[in-house]
Design a protein that fits this description.
Elements: E1 2-7, H1 36-42, E2 54-58, H2 62-68, E3 77-80, H3 86-97, E4 105-110, E5 113-115, H4 118-132, E6 137-143, E7 154-161, E8 172-179, H5 184-193, E9 196-206, H6 207-217, H7 221-234, H8 236-246, H9 255-265, E10 272-277, E11 282-284, H10 288-296, E12 308-310, E13 316-319, E14 325-327, E15 333-336, E16 341-345, E17 350-354, H11 362-370
Parallel strand pairs: 1-2, 1-4, 2-3, 6-10, 12-14, 13-15, 14-16
Antiparallel strand pairs: 4-9, 5-11, 6-9, 7-8, 7-9, 8-10, 16-17
The structure holds guanosine-5'-diphosphate-alpha-D-mannose and magnesium ion (MG).
């Protein structure tokens, strides 16, 4: 059995002003007609009945998510009483599913990714599910790196293996070491060595393997989640009461730091980690410049030559201008002699920055918060 768990509790502040607390990027159609979370479920439908999908989010987004995903059971959309990053969210899924079906393969899927090659995605994930089902194994997706990005985790790839569960079209390697978000110097060394992949943020493991990993690496968190799981089996009311009281006590930590780094540092003993190729044209839409790159459809080195205008069939005039990303629905847009700008207009806000600085847009939200 396969149970995909979609993580959708992030705030996506780097997409301000389109992304707001109650309209975070996962519920926005940043790319095309469908929202990020709808696309996430859609790409899983060749693998699983959507009724089996779980979504872990918060109470600001849950109703909207339920509306956008009518095919997902409402009882499978859980709202955290407090955001505790991804480790408690992953652990929650493991402890809820382990008692009744420890062999179920849990797939952790972020809701902020775009994937162009859906057929290849399904092929690789299917192979990953088979591998994860075959024992105490952790399966991760290694994306071929194209730059020394410091916003990702890195996977040091080890020997090539050929497990019988995996077809020849999907290459499998052991993971030697996992490093979450290294500094620029280290990231450059990793990429130059040719032996590292980006962590694609997708993990496959049986409910038992994940629960055991939490018990081992997060000993304070495990009993809290056991309590929540017991309450979940008791009644809806009891679950809500215990979840609200206990979940905020979990450490605020990502699964990468909490489990993958320490697990990989231990080497041989315990669950083995395997990497499958994330070669399905994956992109983490992290900020406006990433969206610009994605929407332009050209290789990264050419993006500075292309303007992208988003809105409802905007009338756009560009004179001696390139590399700009403009979102201004309902406006006539004219550019004269400007390059590499990001301009995003919504009903009540206007962002002006550059492609280079769009990573820093989250700081605007922090300032707005502290200004009350
Ligand atoms: N439910 C819930 N609760 N979801 C959360 C929370 C939370 O508190 N915090 C984040 N998420 C969701 C986000 O919405 C996103 O879909 C996913 O979890 C991953 O969180 P990000 O905050 O986007 O992580 P990241 O991109 O910085 O880093 C992770 O992904 C990279 C690839 O995209 C790491 O796994 C990196 O190693 C990896 O390279
Ligand atoms: Mg992300």
């Amino acid at each position: 059995k396969f149970a995909p768990v979609i993580l959708a509790g992030g705030s996506g502040t780097r997409f301000w002003p389109r992304s707001r607390k109650a309209r975070a990027k996962q519920v926005l159609a940043l790319d095309g007609e469908r929202t990020m979370i709808q696309q996430t479920v859609e790409r899983l439908t060749p693998l699983v009945d959507p009724a089996e999908v779980w979504v872990i989010t918060n109470s600001l987004l849950d109703d909207l998510i339920a509306e956008q995903l009518p095919e997902v059971s409402r009882e499978h959309i859980l709202s955290e009483p407090a955001a505790r990053n991804t480790a408690p969210a992953c652990a929650l899924a493991a402890f809820l599913l382990e008692p009744s079906s420890p062999e179920t393969v849990i797939g952790i899927f972020p809701s902020d990714h775009v994937v162009k090659n859906i057929a290849r995605f399904a092929e690789v994930i299917r192979a990953g599910i088979a591998l994860a089902a075959s024992g105490e194994k952790i399966v991760v997706l290694g994306v071929p790196p194209t730059r020394a990005e410091t916003g990702y985790g890195y996977i040091e790839l080890g020997e090539v293996v050929k497990p019988s569960q995996v077809p020849g079209s999907v290459a499998v390697r052991r993971v030697k070491r996992f490093t979450e978000k290294p500094n620029a110097e280290v990231a450059e060394q990793f990429v130059a060595s040719g032996n590292y992949a980006w962590n694609g943020g997708i993990f496959l493991w049986s409910a038992r393997t994940l629960a055991n990993a939490i018990r081992e690496h997060c000993p304070a968190m495990a009993p809290l989640l056991e309590r929540i799981a017991v309450a979940h089996r008791t009644s809806k009311e009891e679950f809500e009461r215990v979840f609200t009281e206990v979940y905020p006590l979990c450490d605020n930590i990502s699964i990468d730091y909490a489990v993958l780094e320490p697990r990989s540092a231990k080497g041989e003993a315990g669950a083995e980690i395997y990497s499958l190729p994330g070669d399905f044209e994956w992109n983490d839409l992290g900020c406006w410049s990433a969206l610009h790159e994605h929407a332009s459809g050209c290789p990264p080195e050419n993006v500075s030559l292309v303007n992208v205008f988003e809105g409802e069939d905007p009338l756009c005039i560009s004179i001696d201008s390139s590399g700009n990303y403009i979102h201004a629905p309902g406006k006539v847009i004219a550019l004269v002699g400007v390059t590499n700008l990001v301009v995003v207009q919504t009903k009540d806000a206007l962002l002006i920055t550059t492609r280079e600085r769009s990573q820093d847009v989250g700081k605007v939200v922090a300032e707005l918060k502290s200004a009350g």
